[in-house]
Each structure stands twice: as C-alpha cells, then as structure tokens.
Amino acid sequence: MSFLFGKRKTPAELLRENKRMLDKSIRDIERERQGLQTQEKKLIAEIKKSAKQGQMGAVKVMAKDLIRTRHQIEKFYKLKSQLQGVSLRIQTLKSTQAMGEAMKGVTKAMGQMNRQMNLPSLQKIMQEFERQNEKMEMVTEVMGDAIDDALEGDEEEEETEELVSQVLDEIGIDINQELVNAPSGAVAAPATKGKVAQAEATGNDDSGIDSDLQARLDNLRRM
Questions:
Q1: Which of 11, 27, 105, 148 shows a CA-CA span of 20 to 30 A to 192?
Q2: Residue 70, domain extent
Q3: What total of structural domains would you count in the chain?
Q4: Residues 82 and 130 placed together within one structural domain of the fold
Q5: Basic and acidic residues compositional bias: what residue ranges (predicted)?
Q6: What confidence tens digit (pLDDT) does each residue in 185-219 have?
Q7: How many other C-beta atoms lie within 10 A of the C-beta of residue 29?
Q8: Range with the lowest mean pLDDT among 7-16, 41-50, 79-88, 174-183?
C-alpha cells in the first residue's frame, strides 16, 4: 500500500535499502564478536590466576563460561559469513538489473537507428561509390601509362648511350676520335638512316600509344 502514501519504490531502490540493512547488521555482528573475543581473553587470564591460587571451583565455573563464549564467537562468524553471502547476492542482482536496463536502452537505440536507415538508398550509395572508385582507378592508370610511355623513350635512349659508352671504354675505343678519323660520308649516311628509322619507329609507336589512350578515355566517358 506504499503507493497510496508516496511514490512506489523501484526494484533498484529496494535492493539498495536491503543491502544497506545487511551491511549494518554485518557491522553490528562484527562489533559483538570483537567484544566476545575481548571477554574471552579476560576469562583466560582469570582462569590462570585462579588456578595458581588453587581456586578450582572458580576455575571450573569460568571454564564453562569460556566455552559458551567461544561457541558464541563461532556462531557470530557463521552468521557474518551468511549475511555476507546474502549481501553479495543482492549486489549481483543490482549489477544484473543495471545491465538489463543498459541492454534495454541499447536495444531501443539500435531499433531507432535501424528504422532511420534506408537500405535501398544505402545500396545505391555503395553502388555509386564502387563505380566512382573504379573510374578513378582507371583514370589513374591511364595517366600513369601515358606518363610512362612519354618518358620511356628518353630513358631508353639515355640507358643505351650509357651502355655503349661503357662498352667502348672497356675495349679502349674513343668514339669521338673514331668519328673524327672516319670518312664523313660513311658516318653521315648511317646516321641519317638511323634517324629516319628512329623517326618512323617513333611515329608508329606514338600512333599506337595515342590510339590506346583514346580508347581508354572513350571508355571513361561512357562510365
């Protein structure tokens, strides 16, 4: 009938109150036990004193009192242990109840988030992301290939000249001196033919590169 006189207590509040009462009872029992242990020490001292004085009747009476005191101390130990067990169970219930409330809140929040999510819209976004990502990779690849093709000829020419110079140095031939000593017509004619052949090869390669790049760019425009 507590709801007629005020706000009804929640389970968490009831558990907290009961645990507070148990903790108080445990402290009271511990205080009583310590008092009995002090009394036990006094009885032992009095028993020894009476025994030395030969007062065996008093010794027997105090011995019975000592036994009852020790039994009571043992009972307090057991009672304290039982109350501590109950207190631990209440603490476990509080933790379980708190976890349940937390899970309830998390579940509610997850439900709200799931209701706000539009699965078809998310699928469309992911498809568009995949398409744009693929397009970006293709653009990067085309640009990289174009740069590599543009620089490939110069690099090969430089490497070729370095290799020829290295070989001629190893066999002890100075190419500049050979060109000076050689007849002008003999040197010029092959050089001219080499330039023509190189120009034709370069022209053919460039046309192939241009057509390949154009095909890739056309493919990108269609995406």
A1: 148
A2: 2-117
A3: 2
A4: no
A5: 213-223
A6: 444 444 444 444 444 444 455 555 567 666 766 66
A7: 19
A8: 174-183
Q: What is the pTM of this model?
A: 0.44
pLDDT at site 139:
83
d(CA 91, CA 58): 49
